[in-house]
Design a protein that fits this description.
Elements lengths: L5 H7 L21 H18 L14 E5 L2 E9 L5 E2 L2 E2 L8 H8 L12 E8 L10 E10 L2 E8 L6 H14 L2 E4 L6 H11 L12 E2 H9 L8 H8 L13 H11 L4 H22 L64
Parallel strand pairs: 5-8, 8-9
Antiparallel strand pairs: 1-2, 2-7, 3-4, 5-6, 6-7
Helix pairs in contact: 6-9
Length: 354
């Protein structure tokens, strides 16, 4: 039997056409179905990319560095030596070499602080794939600073892919053994626990969860008290180091930048590494200020706080503040706020600061 032509029959008997069926929306993935959720998100992302008018994003190259590594494989590494006359914001970085251990011990509230010397310190800052804890949070960049031959050396380590993590951790373990006093900012509650988790994952050992740890965040709270609006690193930099960052990538954007760089090399990891480098230089300068080797200096328009050290009547300044300070507290000949004179050179002679 021949199937009837339904459209001709509707026209002959003047029957209106049936309305078109509405498209059935794609069913949402069931709760807990991670595979279906990721597939749906991937389809949506692919559609957005196809409809995007900008096309492929430019590739971001890593700054000039060297190939580090050992038995576990290679990784990206950059080393920059900081000249003795370098200034970060308005604070000479030489102050980080000449801090007063007695004042440091009073702020630490720990007798072992009186035994700490700059040659034992390892300034340490990390960049991670997330701001929460857990074994899934990977440290993809490390900023280190230590003293060699009476000079600060800034070293940065970076994972070009997750397979390089063990090699980086082995190198970091050597640095922690060589310089046994970590100097961080909020590192006692964040950085060192992320590092410890990654070391455990790779079955490596390193002295990271140690009693001798100088967390400058806690020292700043004790030294400046209510003299600051808060004790975030950016606030301390502006009020105590005379440093106002310009065009700085916030640390909260570092995870997205790194994951985008892994995906298609478009994430601004060069800005992440510069942010990390400035953090490390701030640790050096702040160590000198809190250790009584330099006076706090604020950016123009702000007043520097006074340091209050319980048990120390008059903290001495072993490194004088820059001479020729103007009426608003800025040193004559100093760089503009937000710029650092901490210029180091890597193996190719490239200046380390912008």
């Amino acid at each position: 039997m021949v199937a009837p032509d339904r459209d001709r029959l509707r026209r002959a008997f003047r029957v209106p056409a049936a309305p078109a069926a509405a498209p059935v929306p794609e069913a949402a993935p069931a709760p807990g179905d991670l595979r279906a959720f990721l597939r749906a998100r991937g389809n949506l992302f692919g559609a957005e990319q196809a409809a995007g008018p900008l096309g492929p994003r430019p590739v971001v190259e890593l700054p000039p560095g060297a190939e580090g590594g050992g038995a576990a494989g290679p990784f990206w590494r950059r080393e920059q030596r900081v000249p003795a006359e370098a200034v970060h914001g308005a604070v000479p970085l030489a102050a980080g070499l000449q801090f007063d251990p007695a004042q440091l011990a009073l702020l630490l509230r720990a007798p072992w602080g009186a035994e700490v010397r700059a040659e034992q310190c390892l300034c340490l800052d990390t960049e991670t794939t997330g701001l929460s804890g857990g074994a899934g949070t990977v440290v993809f960049a490390y900023g280190l600073a230590f003293v060699r031959a009476g000079q600060w050396v800034v070293e940065q380590l970076f994972l070009r892919d997750f397979g390089e993590e063990r090699a980086v951790l082995e190198h970091l373990a050597q640095r922690l053994a060589e310089f046994p006093v970590p100097v961080t900012f909020v590192g006692k509650s964040f950085d060192r626990h992320r590092i410890h988790a990654r070391l455990l994952l790779h079955k490596l050992r390193a002295p990271v969860l140690t009693e001798r740890h100088v967390d400058l965040y806690h020292l700043a709270r004790r030294a400046f008290g209510g003299g600051l609006p808060d004790t975030r690193l950016r606030t301390v930099e502006q009020h105590c180091l005379g440093l106002l960052r310009h065009d700085d990538l916030p640390g909260s954007e570092a995870p997205a930048a790194y994951l985008a760089w892994l995906r298609d090399r478009s994430g601004p990891v060069d800005r992440v590494l510069e942010h990390n480098r400035l953090d490390v230089l701030s640790l050096i300068a702040l160590l000198g200020v809190l250790g009584g080797a330099a006076a706090p200096v604020a950016v123009p328009g702000l007043a520097p706080p006074s340091i209050r050290v319980p048990g120390l009547r008059e903290p001495g300044l072993r490194v004088p503040a820059p001479a020729g300070r103007g009426p608003r507290g800025r040193a004559a000949g100093a760089v503009a706020p937000g710029r650092s004179r901490a210029r180091g050179t890597d193996g190719s002679g490239t200046a380390g600061a912008p």
